[in-house]
Design brief:
heterodimer; A: 208 residues; alpha+beta; Alpha-Beta Plaits; two-stranded antiparallel ribbon; two-stranded antiparallel sheet; B: 85 residues; mainly alpha; 3 strands; elongated
Chain lengths: 208, 85
Amino acid sequence: MARMKFLCDAERCIECNGCVTACKNENEVPWGVNRRRVVTINDGVVGAEKSISVACMHCSDAPCMAVCPVDCFYKTEDGVVLHDKDLCIGCGYCFYACPFGAPQFPQAGAFGLRGKMDKCTFCAGGPEADRTEAEFKKYGRNRLAEGKLPACAEMCSTKALLGGDGDVIADIYRERVLRRGKGSEVWGWGTAYGPGKAGAQPPAGGKS
Amino acid sequence: MNRAALGAAVIAAAFLAAGCGEAQQVTVYKQGKYQGKPDTQAWNNAPPAAELRGSAWNKGDRSSWETAINQRAMGQNEDNRIYKQ
């Protein structure tokens, strides 16, 4: 059973913001809303600077779903967290609950009115009928219903950002880490090297 | 007294049994809806026209859709192109 996930390889991300642009273009995201953004870690520290592309991580136990007072969120069978904009009241609780700052709120009008929440949909649209104009206007393109992966991951120039079934992208990442000999500390020993032999210990400094 | 103790024991047993319950971890799709919100499963759409460059699968067949999407995901592994040809 597929569980759709994103995985960003910090060793490869060059902060080109191609993923941000691809997302905005594919989904026609309005001004002021960034469903995806690139974050720089250790900014300015020579040799330690890394960039990572962040959007909704489609949590298995999503805090936004837990706090929503109108219960507008839902999770699909392939593990994508989506929401119904017809139910959303724009209260902003999900923004406070999300550890990644994924929920975004369009500002409109002279008094800074907060619109309905907008976030990454893993290019899976929303409750409206798939691949319709109504769905596109509210949630953007439904690429999963076209048999495609999210535009950000497919457009990534260095293939730092991987999107798809968690098992498949973990396999890709593991292969890379084994080849280049580093990177396991970012996503953990299990993701990078797999389960391995029983009783095997990860190296010092590596996360389990 | 015995009745009160028995009643308390039954209530306590009910609470203890409730602790053994497990929350559903897998999302279940019912009558076109996910958790009360209407949506269609991705594999219940017809594959797009060839010029849209989507994957091909059999409408309604989840496993064929998953195979197609996983095959597409492997396109992100450029090691296949660089080292395995």
